[in-house]
Amino acid sequence: xxxxxxxxxxxxxxxxxxxxxxxxxxxxxxxxxxxxxxxxxxxxxxxxxxxxxxxxxxxxxxxxxxxxxxxxxxxxxxxxxxxxxxxxxxxxxxxxxxxxxxxxxxxxxxxxxxxxxxxxxxxxxxxxxxxxxxxxxxxxxxxxxxxxxxxxxxxxxxxx
Length: 160
Prior knowledge:
8 helices
């Protein structure tokens, strides 16, 4: 955009239409740019190089009220430290999760909605919510962003 950039447009949209959910499609992989976009209220961040595979899941995730960060930049923007703690309690490990809990958290981190996960795993949406809740609790994670950070640290967001 010659006279403006995505961050400025997102700011303007946030002030003029707070209910608008923004997904940015960009070349920029810089950590500072991604963080600035998220702080502005952007709910989806997709790289142009991976748009063919990530744009639709990003839109679906954002429409469902979630947050989507392209797996190509997720590892770089979320600081990953091996011995993270929440409060004074250490975060659990993937070994603490059932296979279904891990599967649901992986799909969630990749931007899938609860309904999409339920369809893919052939379970009810309520079951997906239960697996997500139990898995997040075992790991000491409270938000979708924390789940994405954890998934990134586990290597779950790597290209398949």
